[in-house]
């Protein structure tokens, strides 16, 4: 269910959308078997062997023998829709030499290739242009091509310009989402919670195709900051009868870190140890700054004092409970490419214009590119402007995503500026402290090329690096209703030498709040008989709102941090903080646990099903009639 079957063309958007709803489809033969919507459906079906693919397996290097406790269980991470403000949209118009495509896409090159193959026309007759995108989160990397190809097909056949805007309900039904993940694990630990062996077999739901399998990378992120020499990890992908899923902000890292942090919390409960002690006991010992970051965060957030305050609050309040949890993160970042940058200087006034291969979608890429250019050339930022991204000036450019777009484009811009400086150096040596404008005019008179381009690729010396972060979150839960309030968040992230602290703080805050929505309110519901998505609008699908933002939100940068592998010693900030948002699930469980213990429930491990909605929290409390009798 949810597979596009046709395009309605009309002179007005309203007419097209109304006509699309009137279309009735009749099938000659329909399978009588129920669709396989969930991973569990596939694992229990006779088609399991056909639909499950092993993508990566990591064997343990050693196995410990001091096994005091054995823990096993299942953990599920659900899906998420990319809730961008601008819908999937595209405008295609005819030009003298082909088609001009203005697409809301994160990947111009793929749109160019897809349209070329769809219409069977040369790629050089298609120019894809993007000024900016109103939010992407990975949902406009490949899926924007569906809309772009549809609009291009209409324009090609009709000989007219075409605008295609995908309605929200249609977008939620047909565009893929975050890959759901199921984990089955068993772990043996000693009396201090140190892992002696661990086996984790997880499955990720690709939907109906395996175009964007992420399981191999999820395995890497599962290791987090821990010593994994004794771990067996198996990553599998599963084909279900749902629209093909795709990358969503912090793909694979979100699921990987969530799985191992859940296991660590489970170990702490089983052994009776503090969760932070268990995590520290299992961490990598060498070249690991996480313990130091934890010390700084605990001090800055008054962690120890607030733990005592939480305990006192819970003793004095029956129907409201608080919890304070802390979570570490090591985010493994790798570069992708290529990315182009073209820098031109005008001789008339020395002003500079840049067009690059990245896509500005709210992450502040253009601002950072302008800053890098101004810093390298030594000119005011007021002299620099950014032109739209184009497949003509940036052919073959990679998708903007994985948090590295700003870095790679800034690197390419820096290299292009260095080329210009090399050309200007001989001219400048012969002049007496010229202004930038004087230098440019003289270079122009001497016939110097005032345009330079550079393409970042894997051949450049930008090496993968780790991004470190720790987060402390305090939550208060209304035990009577299941509502919760995130009272305070302290988040410390290693940003290297930040190119723009304001942008980086905003990226960290935005990613974290988007993660809070994912773990608490964004629930997708499908009809079990047909596979139809039932939560396809804001009335039924709830992204976080203004009241979901933590009342007290404090972001810290790692002190005196430098990244020798990054652009101007910086680090990426777009996605890592999203991974830290799963700390909320542990805090919610701890708060509910306090309520359960107060009324005499056994101190057994329990789960709040993801996402931790109001209903799921309420049902997990375990209320009984006699709990409401006044004493």
TrEMBL record:
<keyword id="KW-0001">2Fe-2S</keyword>
<dbReference type="InterPro" id="IPR036856">
    <property type="entry name" value="Ald_Oxase/Xan_DH_a/b_sf"/>
</dbReference>
<dbReference type="InterPro" id="IPR046867">
    <property type="entry name" value="AldOxase/xan_DH_MoCoBD2"/>
</dbReference>
<comment type="similarity">
    <text>Belongs to the xanthine dehydrogenase family.</text>
</comment>
<feature type="domain" description="Aldehyde oxidase/xanthine dehydrogenase second molybdopterin binding">
    <location>
        <begin position="297"/>
        <end position="550"/>
    </location>
</feature>
<dbReference type="Pfam" id="PF02738">
    <property type="entry name" value="MoCoBD_1"/>
</dbReference>
<dbReference type="GO" id="GO:0005506">
    <property type="term" value="F:iron ion binding"/>
</dbReference>
<feature type="domain" description="Aldehyde oxidase/xanthine dehydrogenase first molybdopterin binding">
    <location>
        <begin position="59"/>
        <end position="283"/>
    </location>
</feature>
<keyword id="KW-0479">Metal-binding</keyword>
<protein>
    <submittedName>
        <fullName>SFRICE_019347</fullName>
    </submittedName>
</protein>
<keyword id="KW-0411">Iron-sulfur</keyword>
<dbReference type="GO" id="GO:0051537">
    <property type="term" value="F:2 iron, 2 sulfur cluster binding"/>
</dbReference>
<keyword id="KW-0560">Oxidoreductase</keyword>
<dbReference type="GO" id="GO:0016491">
    <property type="term" value="F:oxidoreductase activity"/>
</dbReference>
<dbReference type="InterPro" id="IPR008274">
    <property type="entry name" value="AldOxase/xan_DH_MoCoBD1"/>
</dbReference>
<dbReference type="InterPro" id="IPR016208">
    <property type="entry name" value="Ald_Oxase/xanthine_DH-like"/>
</dbReference>
<keyword id="KW-0500">Molybdenum</keyword>
<dbReference type="Pfam" id="PF20256">
    <property type="entry name" value="MoCoBD_2"/>
</dbReference>
<dbReference type="InterPro" id="IPR037165">
    <property type="entry name" value="AldOxase/xan_DH_Mopterin-bd_sf"/>
</dbReference>
<keyword id="KW-0408">Iron</keyword>
